[in-house]
Design goal:
Oligomer: single chain
CATH class of the largest domain: Alpha Beta
Largest sheet: 5 strands, parallel
Shape: elongated
Structural class: alpha/beta
Order of helices and strands: EHHEHHEEEEHEHEHEEHHH
Number of strands: 10
Number of domains: 2
Strand order of the largest sheet: 1-2-3-4-5
Length: 314
Amino acid sequence: MSGNVKDIFFCNFPHDFSKSSNFFLDILAEIANDNTTCGEILSRQNFLISNCYTQKGFAMKSFRRFQAEFSETKMTKWLELQHGLSVPKANYSKRLWITYENRRPPSSYFQRTLSFDLDNFNGLNHYLPLWVLYIDFLGNTNSWVRHNVRQDSLLKRRTLSPKKQKKKFLCVFINNPDPIRIRAIQGLSKLGEVHIYGRYAGNYIADKLEVSKQYQFSLCFENDLYPGYVTEKPLEAWLGETIPLYWAHDAGTYLNPNALINLNTFANLKDFIDYVAYVKSSEALYRQIYQEPFLQKMYDTNTLITFIREWVLE
């Protein structure tokens, strides 16, 4: 791919994002191979693809981390301290913005955006829930694929065999201790032992999915409640062979509501916890929810590719 592209500059991405192997490069390679005009444009124009994480120098990053870690609210300020948007001074002919967080698409500078907003803003924005980027949605099993699973398998039921039945109650993976998460943990801890992993607890683990397989439920609340803001959290809870205890507004209606227990569908936290207790006590109901497929419909990757092709051609 690199030989067919004059220059693609990735900025404001997380530290674990690979600039040499990622879904953008794969999509652009596919576009270049299918469309001669796109290939010519990609070979002679400069492209900018930017995320929402402001880049800072080492000293500022260290200060922000220290400030977050030792403040009264600890990591609740972590995302707030990362807010902002740095725009490169260089002049790029093609400019695309994508967000992994619940932030609104910029209204200027970037020609196209990929976000959690379902509004297409007159064709300039495309909805992209983050779970899509965590699976092999292009079907090429490339190195950037986080979980080697195809969309069609997420539409299939899973089986809870006697060997998979678990005694451990609930696991939680937390970096940001949002108050709604803490309240839910406090309430759910009355039903059984809750094991907390992640930066918040200082309890790091290498493989989230393998740890999850020991538990009946996984608490996987989003960082915010916003229509369409759906990340990898419910996907990883489901792939970890648990019932996801979720909190989000899946306005895109991709997730199967019968495969998870969503706080957003209950009148209050008490009703949510009471229902979890009921599911926990009923082997038949637990099995019924557990065996539901993760998705109720496919995300149209062809439409996403078309959107990016149009950006290249405009």
